[in-house]
Amino acid sequence: MNSEKLHRDFEKAVAFVNEYQSPIAADLLLKLYAYYKIAQKNYNHPGSKTPLINAFKANALIQAKNVTREEAMKEYIKLVKKEIRNT
User: ACB domain spans which residues (predicted)?
Assistant: First the structure.
């Protein structure tokens, strides 16, 4: 997959998730969060006001720490196609 197509597909997947109306499982949301942050090169501390949520988000980022930006985009797209679009 070329870089331009990857970026375009990633943006479409992000838009789909942002507009999705049904609940999404918490574990899936955390994976999507980690891949999104890596894909955006945003390594800032999670910004929730709830410490427990920050801990879960930080843990998701730690679990995905060895993923490259391109891999994160691909994994995000794959999760959306497999777990959300097929429901």
Answer: 6-87
